[in-house]
Structure formats: structure tokens, C-alpha cells
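stage 2 :: seqdesign
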């Protein structure tokens, strides 16, 4: 791992939160850090982690495979992320140490900027 990663928490309209991560140490495709992405190269799958409700309790995302703990969801297609955001009231807030949108497909970047 070269140290560059994108790790953010998304707060959704219904109060639920999910983490998303992309880097050479996350379960994403391509499995590269954002700084290593070529011009026009985009992630088509991302890692979703630690979905929580307003009260801090975790919840399982239905319809996608996890790592057996319900905490990490590897190689989630971007279209599924869009669906999760839409069915949970849209996107309210993005927070995290690294908030760069490098390598995230334009449709996701646009959605995350609302």
C-alpha cells in the first residue's frame, strides 16, 4: 500500500451512514490508490464498510455479499452504491480524512456533490 487512499463516510437522508473506501488496500476494482489512477480511469467497484444507524448500531446491507461479519462489503458495483444512496433518502453529508473524488466515476462524483 502506498499510503494514498480515499476513505469517507456518507450520511444518508434517513440517518444511516456507510463508509466507502478505494485504494490498493481496499476491496475495489481497480485495486489501486487514487494517486495511481490514470487519466480517465475510474473505479467500477468499491468497498463499503461499517454501515450504521443513527443510534450507532450496525445494520446489514441486503442483496450484496459481505465478509461474513456484516461489516465489510467487498467489490460493490457503483450502481449498487447509487441504489443504496437513493433508497435511503439521498446523500446528506460526506466526511472523512481524504475527500478527493479521484477515480470515482463522474456519475458518482456528481451524486456525491449534491
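stage 2 :: out
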Amino acid at each position: 500500500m502506498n499510503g494514498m487512499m480515499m476513505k469517507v463516510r456518507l450520511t444518508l437522508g434517513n440517518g444511516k451512514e456507510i463508509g466507502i473506501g478505494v485504494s490498493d488496500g481496499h476491496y475495489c476494482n481497480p485495486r489501486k490508490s487514487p494517486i495511481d489512477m490514470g487519466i480517465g480511469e475510474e473505479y467500477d467497484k468499491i468497498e463499503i464498510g461499517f454501515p450504521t444507524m443513527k443510534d450507532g448500531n450496525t445494520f446489514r446491507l441486503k442483496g450484496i455479499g459481505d465478509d461474513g461479519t456484516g461489516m465489510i462489503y467487498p467489490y460493490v458495483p457503483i450502481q449498487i452504491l447509487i441504489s443504496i444512496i437513493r433508497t435511503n433518502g439521498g446523500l446528506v453529508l460526506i466526511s472523512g480524512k481524504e475527500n478527493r473524488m479521484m477515480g470515482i466515476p463522474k456519475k458518482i462524483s456528481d451524486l456525491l456533490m449534491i
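stage 3 :: structure notes
- The two ends are 31 Å apart (CA to CA).
- Confidence is low (pLDDT under 50) at residues 98-103.
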